[in-house]
């Protein structure tokens, strides 16, 4: 089976390939990831309301990043989110999909390469929650990239 051809503002690519971004984009993304790493370290060392505020800031930064740097319509990058933030963002995406009559979205969660034990955390969490508890959608791994989930609204 041939990979699906996807067209974006940055050009066309096969869904099985990694998009090679321009140097300016890579620099912006690296800065974004470093900001998230700092926030996660601060969150880990915090308690109470400060911890909640830092989680909210992480969520906000990821959502704003996706809005300002879309790879393609209904493609979302969840790198840096907490599990709770990922569930919240998925619900937000589903609401947008329903409003805009969109049946399919891609969610980039990654393969877990940056996790302590190299195992993904968000991907299985989203699959468990939305495939078991929600009847009007399904989430499964994209056929050509195991770090991307396909969210389908039924």
Automatic annotation (TrEMBL):
Entry superkingdom: Eukaryota
Stretches assigned to the Smr domain: 76-154
Gene3D superfamilies noted in UniProt: 3.30.1370.110
Protein name: Smr domain-containing protein
InterPro entries: Smr_dom, Smr_dom_sf
Species this protein is from: Caenorhabditis remanei (Caenorhabditis vulgaris)
